[in-house]
Specification:
Elements: H1 3-12, H2 23-26, H3 31-35, H4 38-45, H5 47-64, H6 74-121, H7 124-144
Helix pairs in contact: 4-5
Length: 145
């Protein structure tokens, strides 16, 4: 059996505790602070949450290695500012494109609905309704005079 398939299927059916969704909210707390909280008490008893908590701590420690400890220079700050600005423009462009696609889909739906409405309004059955309404209006006007 393919090793990626077996790994994928094992992780797919691995039991998960619903409380593990809260782990990132508590990742920065030390054990004494964590122990007084309801989630901390759960964490002490749940091996699934303990495993997820240790994995999250490991990732956090790896990330912290790349956080600079000293202030960036003006040149580094300017380069980073430009890079962030370019990334934000790409994100905004993608969001704009998604929004534009939604507008086009809604417009297609509206055109289809109007087309259907037009067919109904021009149908022979509606013609009879119009003629009946016209005679009714004329009859009421005739009775009023």
């Amino acid at each position: 059996m393919n090793s990626t398939l077996s790994t994928k299927s094992e992780s797919q059916y691995r039991p998960v505790c619903l409380h593990s969704r809260n782990i990132m909210a508590y990742i920065d707390l030390n054990e004494s602070d964590l122990s007084v909280l309801p989630f901390g008490k759960h964490l002490m008893l749940c091996p699934l949450c303990q495993d997820e908590f240790l994995k999250a701590k490991k990732v956090l420690n790896q990330i912290e290695k790349y956080i600079p400890l000293e202030k960036m220079g003006d040149q580094q700050s300017e380069v980073m500012s430009k890079e962030v600005s370019q990334m934000m423009r790409r994100v905004k462009l993608k969001e704009f494109e998604k929004g534009w696609l939604k507008i086009q889909l809604y417009a297609q739906g509206a055109r289809a609905a109007l087309s259907d409405l037009g067919r109904v309004l021009i149908s022979p059955q509606m013609g009879l309704v119009y003629v009946g309404a016209l005679f009714l209006a004329l009859g009421i006007r005739f009775l009023q005079s």
